[in-house]
Every structure is written in structure tokens, then in C-alpha cells.
Amino acid sequence: MARITGTWLSGNPAEPGDEETPGYPGELYGLPREGAGSLAPTWRRVVALFIDWFIAVGIAAVIARSLAASSMTLLVWFVIGIAAVTLFGFTPGQYFMKLRVVRVDAPVAVGFVRALARQVLLVFVVPALFTDADGRGMHDQATGTALVNAR
Q1: What is the number of other CB atoms lying within 10 angstroms of the CB of residue 70?
Q2: What global pTM score does this model have?
Q3: Helix runs in the chain, H state only
Q4: Phi and psi (nearest 5°) for 30?
């Protein structure tokens, strides 16, 4: 029996098959079920994040001349994320995993402000752990973006 009051963790109260419940992830945003433009699976998002982090570790080690440069690593990762998503729509890790960051409200580039807000939220890690029914993290929900398959 469902709780009448619910909680912030309750999620969407709609039943499967209702008009409000999407048939597949991304349907509410007009994204395809599979192939290019469909929402990326979580495992590919995580692998892309690890690739970006290892690139940042390498660059930070060169800059700081030691592997114990954790603050420098975070700063490099932060800058790479903002610059790459603003300029290209993907980070190096997302490129290798064939992913792309797109806006779900319009077919235009993500832009600096959304890339900055998305990266700021990702620094806190927690927003990425809480996802909606489509699998989009809170950082994507807050910025009106989605990580989709590029090819």
C-alpha cells in the first residue's frame, strides 16, 4: 500500500501506463528510444566521468609536478568540463564514450552558463546520484540538459 503523504524520495506518483508515464527514457523530451540522440545509459556516463578524471589527474600532475595534487586535479577537471561542453558539447571522456550534452528545451548549443551550472553541481557529486525516471541526474534536470548517445 502506498503512503498517502509520500516523501521527497517517493518519485512520480503516476502508475505505469498512465499518459504521464513515459514509455521509454527520454520520450517526454522528444528523444528517440535508441541510437543517436537517445539518453545515455548510466554505465557509459560513469566511464566517461572516470576518463575525464584521469585526464585531469595527468594534467594536474604535470602542473603541480606531483601526484598529490588533489585540489589541482579538481580545478583542472572543473575547467575541462566547462570549456569542453561550452565549445564542443562534450568532454574528452564523453567523446571517447560517444556521448554528447544537449539541451532538452531547444536544439541549440548548451552554452557557457548552462555548462558552468552543470559543472558546479557535478562538483558536489550528490546531484548526479539522484536521477529521475529517465535516468537524468539532478544536475541535468536543473540545467535543462541531457547526456545522449552521439552516434
Answers
A1: 11
A2: 0.76
A3: 42-64, 70-87, 92-96, 112-123, 126-129, 138-143
A4: 80, 20
Give dist(CA 140, CA 71) in Å, integer.
24
Backbone angles phi and psi of 121, in degrees to 5: -65, -35
3-state DSSP: the chain helix, strand, coil percent, rounded to 5?
45, 10, 45
Instruction: Find the angle CA(50)-CA(52)-CA(55) to the nearest 5 degrees.
Output: 110
Q: What does DSSP assign to residue 148? A: E
Q: Which residues contact 66 (CB under 8 A, 6 or more apart)?
A: none
Provide the total of helices (H) and of strands (E) in the chain, helices listed first: 6, 2
Q: So what's the pLDDT on residue 79?
A: 95
pLDDT in tens, 27-67: 777 777 787 877 888 888 889 999 999 999 999 988 887 65
* C-beta separation of 52 from 44 below 8 A: no
CB 91 within 8 A of CB 110: no
Residue 99 has φ and ψ, to the nearest 5°, of -120, 165
Cell numbers found for residue 146: 541531457
In the predicted structure, residue 127 carries a pLDDT above the cut 70: no
- Sign for the pseudo-dihedral over CA of 109, 113, 115, 117: negative
